[in-house]
Design brief:
Length: 120
């Protein structure tokens, strides 16, 4: 069986590859800080989001849990966080791996929303 490779972008979208996600929520769980073979810190975590959104001119309650990953300084920053803390995360969505196409949020920016935690 040939190795799995990511799909090529559709030609009509290749000129404008938008993939930016901003999500607020509360930390549910954090994995242990680990390091890649190149020495880059990596931390996986899950957040719970809850909000009111408008869809087809109707307000609806929205709730979800999403897996996320932070690398480098963001991983070290998140390692000091605790479950229950409120955060605003900015990043992009990508497949978890070549074998698992489920989505994971790759975090580029972290904002702690309550107080001055973790030096922010």
């Amino acid at each position: 069986m040939p190795p799995l490779t990511p799909p090529e972008p559709e030609p009509e979208f290749a000129s404008r590859p938008d993939n930016r996600t901003i999500l607020t929520g509360r930390l549910l769980e954090l994995s242990a800080l680990r390091y890649t073979p190149a020495g880059v810190p990596v931390l996986g975590f899950r957040i719970a989001h809850s909000s009111q959104q408008s869809e087809a001119d109707v307000e609806r309650a929205v709730g979800c849990e999403i897996s996320a990953v932070a690398l480098g300084p963001n991983a070290q920053l998140m390692a000091g966080a605790k479950p229950g803390e409120a955060v605003r995360l900015t990043g992009f969505l990508a497949a978890k791996s070549l074998k698992s196409r489920s989505l994971i949020l790759h975090v580029n920016e972290i904002e702690f929303l309550e107080g001055n935690q973790n030096g922010i």
